[in-house]
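quick one, two chains, predict together pls
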Amino acid sequence: MAEIPIVFILAGLAAYTLLAGADFGAGLWTLLAGPKRAGRAATRDHARHAMGPVWEANHVWLIFVLVVCWTAYPLAFGSITSTLAVPLFIAAVGIILRGASYALRGQLDGARGQRTIENLFALSSILTPFALGTVVGGIASGRVPVGNATGNPVTSWLNPTSVLIGALAVAIGGYLAAVYLAADAHRLGERTLELDFRARALRSGLCAGALALAGLLVVRYDAPALFNGLTSGLAAAMIGVSAAAGLMTLLLVWRNHFGPARASAALAVAAIVAGWALAQKPRFLPGLTIDQAAAGRSTLLAVIVAVAGGAIVLVPSLILLFRLFLRGRLDPAVTLDATVLTPPHIAQNQKGKTRLLAALAGTTVVIGAGVTVFADPGWARALGIICLFAGAISTFGLATAEPDETT
Amino acid sequence: MTATLATVGGVFAMVDQDYLLQARQMQALSLAVHIPLVCFGIAFPAMVLFCEWRYLRTGDSLFRTLAQRWSKVMLALFAVGVVTGTILSFELGLLWPVFMASFGNVFGLGFTLEGFSFFIEAIFISIYVYGWDRLAPRLHFLTGIPVAIAGVTGSLTVISVNGWMNHPGGFTLRDGRAVDEHPWSALFGNFFFWHEFVHMYFAGYIVTGFLVAAAYAWGFLRGRWGRYQRTALTIALSAAAIAAPLQVVIGDWAAREVATEQPTKLAAIEGLGPTTRGAPEHLLGWYNGHEVVFGIEIPRLLSLLAFHNPNATVQGLDAVAPQDRPPVNVERFAFQTMVGIGTLLALLGVVYLYVRLRHKRLPGSPWFYRAVVLAGPLSVLALVAGWITTEVGRQPWIVYGVMRTSQAVTDARGIPIGYGTLIVVYLGLAAGVGWLLRRFSRLPLEVDRDG
């Protein structure tokens, strides 16, 4: 049972890499939106608009990873966050800057400072995945000992493995974004943008593949234990799957099959996350296995129940969002109907209703306040609070009921 | 296994962090930035949905315009809230790793559940805001309902964690760590968190209502006073004006819970040195280490408020050792700020409701609208002061009576650098949000279709 929450964490991490990664990548392309076939502005606009409706949901995955980690493996979480405080803080600042510039730049058209905000957005889109990648590298190469900031504050994240995974995270994001944006341009019938992003996808895909291969070499010298894990048993099979899926996705992009390319890219990312986990198993941190790091049985059970229950609500909601989004149902509307600011005629014979509502409001507020202040047992107080809520709602109904015709 | 844990307990031994105060301030700053946004998460979706419901019922397109414009503000504030909320979850680990390592297994469940609320909120807020004109009207209204529900459940589960920190239970302490934990009952079987939640829920409507109303009151003073502005002000101000007086009742409940469960916090709120029968309350003044000086004394009021009995005995600060007492003057100042502003807001609310319900109109005096303009920022101040009262009053404990804040802090260096960076970044964020909201308010009404 101690291993189930880590599966949740890894799934969340894979989802974050795929969804938020693509989002970071879109930011990367706004910076590298050099003059190609389509103009710079068109490229930026496309990258911006295409990410709109799913931005918030994509970034909640990171919160999910953090909270499951600290609930199910508190000891490991405290060790990681204290030793790797610097890259985590950099990522946090990157997230603030990115979120802020994201919220702003949609409104900035033509305003002063637009360029600065755009660049801030792009830079934080590179900084954040890089910093988070170095965190993964620090954990994977066994540089985070158990304890309160007992690891080296610098080399725990500025080391060959970390830098490589950080760069890989940026490249994967760029690749995913380019595939996605090419597909979106295709859907919108923007031929030049589609070609641009197809070319970008091919280049960044090759780049990510090269980094991954170089990564294996680096890991071999920098973190031999991880390398041994990665090259034996199931983990090696996963790395193979990832490589095959990676090649496949390039081929699909080349042949203009963007939809299937997205699926195989997802497989490549998921397989590499799984491979890492299998290579490290059962070690979480040096001297700490997953079993030792895990919380008690009741907490693990609670997390599993919470995630399973949450998934029942979450999965259909996510499917709904992405279906609406990918089919263009959430694209900006083009219809422009004028708003009428004159009131329609409303029947005025509501006096009896109003009186009833007033009586209800008065009674519930008086009873509610009296019971809440003077009654002691918990159930009575609960009743009092419910009365107060009823009073508040009915008073609100009264206060907003009649259209205000004076002044 | 036990052997490992024992060594681990040793590894997480107490550290000598020179910048504990800065770490606390950094956390406080991040909370103060995030909490006003939480208010909008609690109250704003319900207000937007109310407008849309009125539109569906009456066909009055004014309500549709109102709902649509407010929903854009709602989305922008939510996006900022996602960011500031993420920062908070980072900081819990970055600043208080020992707290997380020792007790994450007990309270973490609250955040796991909150994560799902956040997901649902994020998904449906996107569908709702981007779905105007794209979904059938009734379906569109329905997609807003999960946003309203998730805003409330999210804050509920987070506040259950704060309730647990103030009134911990559901675990056994071994080597400084929680074992044999029962997270469900620790969080939700804890009666202490209910008053915190209801208090925050009402605060959500007060802050959102007064802030939104302040924008239209400002418009009134500048001569923008059409039917659109009047309706918007009526809805926002009605919500705040009803919640503000009721908050007094909820506050009384909260004070009595604190009196029985956290007597030291109550003593710090008043600055009560010795344990006293028929304890007085002082307005303003300064606690000099023994008693409040230069304050206005109201005899027996503290006993009356805390226990509904003017002769009740109230435990003083002297009952605990000096190192177990919170910083009294910060606590008193925060509490009196909250209560003072809260009282003024309640009065403003009653005046508004009287005119609105009795005379069936809106107040006409510009002074009323000036007061509403002020009430917006003041309500945020009261909100933050209230959380300072809860959190500073819990000191020196991070888990009340179990773990000291100084035991929880990180051993990593560089807290002042982080703190300074965060201040600069948040100032930039505040400027950005202010600019954005101003820009939203300047959009002409007629062309309010997504552009």
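Chain B has two domains: 28-190, 226-406.
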